Amino acid sequence: MISRRDAFKTLALTTGAFALGASQPPSASAQTPGEVHKLPPLGYDYDALEPFIDAETMKLHHDKHHAAYVAKLNLALEKEPSLAPRPLEDLLRNLASLPESVRPDIRNHGGGHYNHTLFWQTLRKKENSAPTGALAKAIESSFGGVPAFLEQIQAAGLKQFGSGWAWLVLREGKLAIEATPNQDCPLTTGGYPLVGVDVWEHAYYLKYQNRRADYLKALVQILNWDFIGERYMQAKG
Ligand code: MN3
pTM of the full predicted structure? Predict the structure, then answer.
């Protein structure tokens, strides 16, 4: 039988826990205060890229995969708090100089966070979208035109063995198509990524199964050229 005093204690604890939970907005419930890096919002609905990328893939990819990179990056930074104030871009650019205790975690989870943050921003479902202005000219002179560029970045994604990314990067002032394994980010080798194409199976397997080529063909149709063009101008300027 529960005593009156115990019942009071239970009530107080329950009320306290409830009040604590209620004081936080639902959007913050997945984050612990003081976490250095936070999962950015997708910026559009999960189904916004249908039928090119399905809603279930987008939800898992953002809410589970990307969230896990953020959480593990934050755990790594707890081991080296001196690195916490530094921007992620700075850590990835200077990976080789970081302490060995955290270097692999920052490479994998920091890279994962950075790469996915860029990935969401470079996608948008808009018919007949194409690069314009200075970026269009640079793509023309570097690759012989937009169709040739789209073919080449798909080929780079298809050729990447296992998990990784295909990229459009600005390197030494010039555009280049590259690929990296795992979550390696072009920043680490002195490039600046403008477009990142995720070729991990988690990016396409639910809808496309083993057909990576079909996923790539769909993905290049939903590039957000306004965003990519602005990023190019910022990088050049
Ligand atoms: Mn991914």
Answer: 0.86
